[in-house]
Specification:
The chain is of the alpha+beta class. About 20% of the residues lie in helices and about 35% in strands.
Length: about 70
């Protein structure tokens, strides 16, 4: 059975100035726990006059890494 969480690619939240930072940290922690080890999390903050827009997205890790010596 495929879980719904595996289908989530992006999570966008609009925050007002009264938002508690602990709530935001718990959302980030839960999103990181949901995704697989094959993905990494990108976070993006967009400031406007009225609110703050916070976006979490998952991005596929590369299969191979270049090693420089």
């Amino acid at each position: 059975m495929i879980h719904l969480y595996s289908k989530i690619n992006k999570l966008s939240i609009e925050l007002d100035k009264n938002t508690n930072p602990r709530v935001l940290m718990s959302i980030i922690r839960n999103f990181k726990n949901i995704i697989d080890d094959r993905y990494e999390v990108d976070m993006q903050l967009i400031f406007t006059f009225k609110c703050l827009k916070f976006t979490l997205s998952k991005k596929r890790k590369p299969y191979l890494k270049l090693i420089e010596s």
